[in-house]
């Protein structure tokens, strides 16, 4: 597959809402920058986490070229937040979509495993103009309960296995996993045959630049790196793009943590950096 046939995938926890204490980091101050980051890097498909009413309105206005699959409502309030999948219908054909909740009762809105927040997964099947079909699943594991992260990861893998039909469909999983490489959820995916695109397309190491920076950018990432050295822990690379290549041998040929910010104001699009992977088939 030549360069112009590459499939580009993004994962982005957009922090698509505002709290009273956010000040300069309120969504209204980040909205244009956030949408501009997506528009500039132009992924074929992206999984976003923490999409809410105000950010959905921004995306519908600023990103009209993307179709949006909201998926099941997560969060505890109404109308909730969404692990939405956005895709370019000029580049991808939608074949099917669905979702489930990360709980012991995944077919109804619910929470389990010591989490106080309802979590969900959203999936879609696509076909490229070159005839490559693949499954994309987007999720957001719990931020507090380690048990919920493990059980949620196990549930995602079971559902992916059921959705792969003949068992050899390429699968891309995006999300904010709220844990580091090397953690139990990370190893679950690795043991099931998923590659971390950061490792596959990069240095071959599962450490690397952190993706959660709490609106502090490189300063926070540097502190996490120093802390990681002191505590023998990896930086907070919480946002992953995972790949099981299937019979098409879909593989990662590029991976970038996008450190976008407004140079004039110092504002960041989110409290997480987006991640972009380039994939190609065959070879």
UniProtKB/TrEMBL annotation:
Name of a matching Pfam family: Exo_endo_phos
Lineage of the organism: Bacteria, Bacillati, Actinomycetota, Actinomycetes, Pseudonocardiales
Transmembrane segments: none
Top-rank taxon, per record: Bacteria
Species of origin: Pseudonocardia ammonioxydans
Domain Endonuclease/exonuclease/phosphatase: 10-272
Protein name: Metal-dependent hydrolase, endonuclease/exonuclease/phosphatase family
Keywords per UniProt: Endonuclease, Exonuclease, Hydrolase, Nuclease
GO molecular-function terms, A-Z: 3'-5'-RNA exonuclease activity; endonuclease activity
């Amino acid at each position: 597959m030549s360069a112009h046939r590459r499939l580009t995938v993004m994962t982005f926890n957009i922090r698509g809402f505002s709290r009273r204490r956010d000040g300069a980091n309120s969504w209204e101050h980040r909205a244009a920058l956030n949408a501009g980051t997506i528009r500039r890097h132009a992924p074929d498909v992206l999984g976003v986490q923490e999409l809410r009413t105000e950010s959905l309105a921004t995306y519908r206005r600023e990103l009209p070229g993307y179709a949006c699959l909201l998926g099941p409502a997560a969060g505890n309030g109404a109308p909730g937040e969404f692990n939405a999948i956005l895709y370019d219908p000029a580049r991808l054909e939608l074949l099917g979509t669905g979702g489930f909740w990360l709980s012991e009762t995944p077919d109804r809105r619910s929470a389990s495993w010591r989490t106080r927040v309802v979590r969900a997964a959203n999936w879609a099947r696509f076909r490229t103009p070159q005839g490559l079909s693949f499954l994309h699943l987007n999720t957001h594991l719990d931020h507090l309960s380690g048990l919920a992260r493990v059980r949620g990861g196990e549930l995602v893998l079971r559902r992916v296995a059921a959705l792969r039909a003949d068992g050899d469909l390429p699968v891309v999983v995006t999300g904010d996993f709220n844990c580091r490489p090397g953690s139990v959820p990370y190893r679950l995916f690795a043991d099931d045959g998923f590659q971390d695109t950061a490792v596959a397309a990069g240095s071959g190491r599962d450490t690397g630049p952190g993706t959660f920076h709490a609106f502090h950018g490189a300063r926070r990432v540097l502190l996490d790196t120093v802390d990681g050295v002191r505590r023998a822990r990896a930086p907070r690379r919480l946002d992953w793009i995972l790949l099981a290549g299937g019979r098409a041998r879909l593989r990662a040929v590029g991976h970038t943590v996008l450190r976008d910010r407004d140079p004039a104001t110092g504002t960041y699009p989110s409290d997480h950096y987006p991640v972009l992977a380039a994939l190609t088939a065959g070879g």
